[in-house]
C-alpha cells in the first residue's frame, strides 16, 4: 500500500513536470532584457525564446516575431529546441506507460508485468529530466557569459527569464519521479531474489526425502 501511494505521488510529480516542460518549451521569455531608458513611458521589455522573440512596450503594445530560419540560429538554441522537444515526447510516453504499470490501476496484467512496465516509465522520466536539464543549463551558461563579457554593450545583455526557471523545476520533478518509479520496482525484485518462494524449497526437500527412502529400499 505504501509503495502504491509513493507511485501515485511520483505520478503527480511527473504530471507537473510534463506540464512545466511543455510550458517552458513554448514560452518566449527564456532571456529578458528590460530597457527603461530616460523616460519610463518609453520603457520596453525584450524577450527571446526558442521559437519567437517578443517585445513588450509600457504603453501596452505587444509584438512577437517567429524564428523561421533554423540554420541562422545559434547552436545552443538549436540544441535547446531539439532536447526540449525530446523531453516533452519522453515525458508524455512515461505518463502513458506508468499509467498502465502503477499498482493502483487495473491495467497491465500481473504484478511482474506491471513492475517491468513501471520501471520502463521511470526510465522515460529520467531521460526526459536529463534532456530538459541540458538545454536550461546550457542556455543559462550562455546568458551569464554574455552578461559578464565587457565587450558586449549593456543594451545587448540579457538575464534568465521565467521559462528557464520553469524548465529547471520541471526537469527536477521528472528526475525525482523517475527515480521513485525505478526504485519501487527494484526493491520488489530485490526482495524476491533474497527471499525465494517457499514452494520450491519444499519441493526440493521432498525430492531429497524420496531419494533417501529409495536408497533404503535397495538396502
Describe this structure in words.
The longest helix has 38 residues, at 111-148. 31% of the residues are buried. With 219 residues, the chain is of the alpha+beta class. A 5-stranded antiparallel beta sheet has the order 4-3-2-1-5. It has helices at residues 2-26, 75-101, 111-148, 162-194, 198-218; strands spanning 31-35, 44-48, 52-57, 62-66, 159-160. Helix 1 (2-26) runs antiparallel to helix 2 (75-101) and helix 1 packs antiparallel against helix 4 (162-194). The chain is elongated, with a radius of gyration of 27 Å.
Q: Briefly, what is this?
A:
This protein has 5 helices and 5 strands, in the order αββββααβαα. The protein has helices at residues 2-26, 75-101, 111-148, 162-194, 198-218; strands at 31-35, 44-48, 52-57, 62-66, 159-160.
Based on secondary structure, the structural category is alpha+beta
Strand content: 5-15%
Shape: elongated
Question: SSE order, as H and E?
Answer: HEEEEHHEHH
Strand order of the largest sheet: 4-3-2-1-5
Approximate helicity band: 55-70%
Uncertain stretches = 190-195, 197-206
* Total count of strands: 5
Termini separation (Å)? 55 Å
Mean pLDDT: 81
Count of helical regions: 5
C-alpha Rg (nearest Å): 27 Å
Main beta sheet, described? Answer: 5 strands, antiparallel
Amino acid at each position: 500500500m505504501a509503495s502504491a501511494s509513493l507511485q501515485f505521488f511520483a505520478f503527480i510529480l511527473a504530471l507537473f513536470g510534463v506540464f512545466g516542460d511543455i510550458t517552458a518549451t513554448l514560452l518566449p521569455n527564456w532571456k529578458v532584457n528590460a530597457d527603461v531608458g530616460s523616460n519610463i513611458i518609453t520603457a520596453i521589455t525584450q524577450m527571446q525564446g526558442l521559437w519567437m522573440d517578443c517585445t513588450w512596450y509600457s504603453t501596452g503594445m505587444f509584438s512577437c516575431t517567429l524564428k523561421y530560419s533554423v540554420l541562422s540560429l545559434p547552436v545552443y538554441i538549436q540544441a535547446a529546441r531539439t532536447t526540449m522537444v525530446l523531453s516533452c515526447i519522453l515525458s508524455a510516453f512515461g505518463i502513458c506507460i506508468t499509467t498502465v504499470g502503477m499498482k493502483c490501476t487495473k491495467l497491465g496484467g500481473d504484478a511482474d508485468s506491471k513492475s517491468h512496465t513501471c520501471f520502463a516509465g521511470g526510465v522515460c522520466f529520467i531521460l526526459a529530466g536529463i534532456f530538459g536539464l541540458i538545454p536550461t543549463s546550457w542556455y543559462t551558461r550562455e546568458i551569464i557569459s554574455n552578461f559578464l563579457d565587457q565587450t558586449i554593450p549593456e543594451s545587448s545583455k540579457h538575464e534568465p527569464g521565467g521559462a528557464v526557471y520553469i524548465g529547471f523545476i520541471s526537469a527536477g520533478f521528472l528526475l525525482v519521479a523517475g527515480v521513485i518509479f525505478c526504485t519501487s520496482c527494484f526493491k520488489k525484485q530485490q526482495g524476491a531474489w533474497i527471499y525465494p518462494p517457499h514452494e520450491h524449497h519444499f519441493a526440493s526437500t521432498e525430492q531429497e526425502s524420496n531419494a533417501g527412502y529409495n536408497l533404503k529400499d535397495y538396502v
